[in-house]
Design a protein that fits this description.
Elements lengths: L4 E8 L9 E10 L2 E12 L3 H16 L7 H18 L1 H4 L3 E10 L3 E7 L3 E6 L2 E4 L10 H6 L4 E2 L7 E2 L9 E2 L12 E6 L4 E7 L1 H4 L4 H8 L5 H14 L6 E8 L1
Antiparallel strand pairs: 1-13, 2-3, 3-4, 4-5, 4-10, 5-11, 6-7, 6-12, 8-9, 12-13
Catalytic activity: O-phospho-L-threonyl-[protein] + H2O = L-threonyl-[protein] + phosphate; O-phospho-L-seryl-[protein] + H2O = L-seryl-[protein] + phosphate
GO molecular function, one term: protein serine/threonine phosphatase activity
Pfam family, one: PP2C
């Protein structure tokens, strides 16, 4: 796999007073006769313990699912639910707050399985064109679901829609105080890797608040080294005054 795929990542702490809450995972693994590339961004809010826990456990939970190879979408949904339940049960140790997640599993360099909760995002570039593979879970888009669970969406305080006036994403891991009104159910999608596939970007919202999908792709499409590309994309977000924690992984094909 290493002959066909390279990857690199870069992280920058934002301007807030709290500790860095973004975590990345990037690894290659042999599973039976299959080669897997495992990539993820975990963006914590009011927590660095929960995204760190996800980095250590989420992929293990996914790959433990007996039907991962036959029904990967169902396996990932179940693993996300199990992981979230464990996080809520460990709230005394892991503390309050929560985390978004975007996970990408590359199977035999042929297929991507992408899942996410929250607003960390995965974008693929094919023939120079950006395509978003994940779904931004915004409270304004999921107001009806949140209200049906007994919660509400409010722009007060501030001007950003928030679940119960607190959380600016509609889905996340953790957040025990909001668990009745919040879900960790991921959106899951499949994407085939073909000859047109150039690279995939995974990044926290510190990138996407200031760059569109196509702008991000255009920013790095001529940079062949994946690590340099990730660093350059991060620097571009900073130049555009992103003040949030920023984490970025670039996975390059060919």
């Amino acid at each position: 796999m290493s002959k066909h795929v390279t990857h690199g990542y870069h992280l920058v702490k934002g301007k807030s007073n709290h500790a860095m809450e973004d975590y990345v995972f990037a690894d290659f693994k042999q599973a039976d006769d299959n080669e897997l590339g495992l990539f993820a961004i975990f963006d914590g809010h009011l927590s660095h313990d929960i995204p760190d826990y996800l980095r250590s456990h989420l992929f293990d939970n996914i790959l433990k699912e007996p039907d991962f190879w036959t029904e990967p979408e169902n396996a990932i949904r179940r693993a996300y639910r199990i992981t979230n339940t464990t996080i809520l049960e460990k709230a005394v140790d892991l503390g309050k707050g929560g985390s978004t997640a975007v996970t990408v599993i590359l199977i035999n360099c042929q297929k991507l399985v992408v899942a996410n909760v929250g607003d960390s995002r995965a974008v693929i570039c094919k023939n120079g064109v950006a395509k978003q593979l994940s779904v931004d879970h915004e409270p304004s888009k999921e107001r009806e679901i949140i209200e049906n669970r007994g919660g509400f969406v409010s722009n007060f305080p501030g001007d950003v829609p928030r679940v119960d006036g607190q959380l600016a994403v509609a889905r996340a891991f953790g957040d025990k105080s909001l668990k009745e009104h919040l879900t960790s159910e991921p959106d899951v999608t499949m994407e085939i890797i073909d000859d047109d596939t150039e690279f995939v970007i995974l990044a926290s919202d510190g990138i996407w608040k200031v760059l569109s999908n196509q702008e991000a792709v255009d920013c790095i499409k001529h940079i062949k080294d994946a690590r340099s590309a990730a660093k350059h994309l991060t620097e571009e977000a900073l130049a555009r005054k992103s003040s949030d924690d920023i984490s970025c992984i670039v996975v390059r094909f060919r």
